[in-house]
Amino acid sequence: MPAEHARPLGGVAAGLALVVLATLVGVAAQRVAGAGTTPAAAGDVTPTGHTTTVTVTTEDMRFHPDHISVPAGDRLVVELANHDRRRHDLVLDTGAKTGTVAAGGTARLDAGVIGGTVEGWCSLPGHRQAGMTLTITVAGTHDHPTAPAEFTARDATAPPVPPERVHKVELRVREDARQHLWTFNGTAPGPTLRGRVGDTFEITLINDGTIDHGVDFHAGALAPDEPMRPIDPGERLTYTFTATRAGIWMYHCSTMPMLLHIGNGMYGAVIIDPPDLAPVDHEFVLVQSELYLGGDLAKMQADQPDAVVFNGHADQYTHRPLQTRAGQRIRVWVLDAGPSRGSAFHIVGAQFDTVYREGQWLLRPGDPGGAQVLDLSPAAGGFVETTLAAAGHYPFVTHAMVDAERGARGIIEVS
User: Which of 67, 128, 146, 291 has its CA 20 to 30 A from that of 205?
Assistant: First the structure.
């Protein structure tokens, strides 16, 4: 079975929690707006006379930590340190706020006596929407721990080409009602499969869910009537196809309405290498998709995603960059799983000398031209290659900037 780089569902839940908190709620720590002003207490609570002091830093358009738990009745003082490269301010929904804090600057915020949940944010244009939020809660009343478990980004390394020519793969349908996710093998996207032209894939689909599901592999070419039919809970189906053409191909649930099933997480990638594909130092796989919190079909039909993501989580590779070294050659496979929005993959500071899209070489090393973007429609895929000569941080995005700001972005860290 091909090597898989799939993160467990618990990580998906953590990533979804990050998205929810980064887009729908928030709080920041701050100082009193003016001399002699005391912030209003959050709820009716008897002051303890004790002060809790917490240090909060700003970096990469985030507050760290973004949750603060305080004993009921304590006064909270936040020491804010701006480690970002841009200015920020902090506004609490109690009315307390700081002035603008310059890069490298500090501020002290008296948040007042804490008796309930307080929300806050950075009020500079677009910063709150980009995720600069923080929540203050009374100890013991918040579902999230003060020091949440370390987030693990999904491994974006492409699986190697396995030596066998027949690939037997088991896909289990799993439904997570708490997160409204439907998945293959517990991850969204599902596992990345890999092979060569002429390889046979024997897929066993097992429906461990509560409704009917199916699967459609674009890497195969065969009548869909039987292999792509929906199966009921508890049933299994064997889907066999031979890969006859190269590319990065989408697979997804084939049950109607497909918009709902794909939008809820039932998609993945199959890489079929072009013949004589040259080796590179690093290969990455990025599956772009839309995220609709709560499995909201109305949002899907209106094309109003809560986030647009690479490999299932907004901004995960901004906080956990992909790694390479100066002078090494990289290949990035990109699949746009949609279900509805296109992708314009771009690496800031890089030019592509190789572009392969939908089975066609558009650019190869030695050609006089270069490329700045790999443009893909929903369900399309390809790869680009480049060499990043200098050490530094190279952001990658979809250049549809509204979707980049929704979370389809990351960083390649070159050492």
Answer: 291
Alpha carbons 55 and 53: distance in angstroms, whole number: 7
The tokens for 322 are: 């992909």
Q: Does the reported pTM lie above 0.85?
A: no
pLDDT digits (tens, 9 = 90+) for 242-289: 999 999 999 999 999 999 999 999 999 999 999 999 999 999 999 999
**Token duo for residue 289:** 């998709």
Residue 260: name the closest of 290, 229, 236, 223 by CA.
290
- CA 413 to chain centroid, in Å, comes to 17
Secondary structure (3-state) at 366: coil
Rounded Cα gap, residues 127 and 373, in angstroms:
27
Are the beta carbons of 266 and 257 closer than 8 angstroms? Answer: no
Distance of CA 192 to the CA centre of its chain: 16
Partners of 284 in beta bridges? 157, 332
Tens digit of each residue's pLDDT (9 = 90 or more) over 24-73:
333 333 333 333 334 444 557 899 999 999 999 998 888 998 999 999 99
On the 0-12 / 13-18 / 19+ scale of CB atoms within 10 A, 188 is buried
Q: Give the residue from 276, 190, 237 showing the smallest Cα distance to 2.
A: 190
- The amino acid present at 138, given as its one-letter code, is V
> Could you tell me if 42 and 116 are in contact, meaning their C-beta atoms sit under 8 angstroms apart?
yes
**Residue at token pair 């693990």:** 152
Question: Which among 332, 333, 347 has a CA at the least distance from the CA of 380?
Answer: 333
> Does an H or E element contain 260, and which?
helix 258-263
| Helices (H), ranges, 41-190 | none
End-to-end CA distance of the chain: 33
Instruction: Name the β-bridge partners of 42.
Output: 114
Q: Which residue has the tokens 């890089």?
A: 350
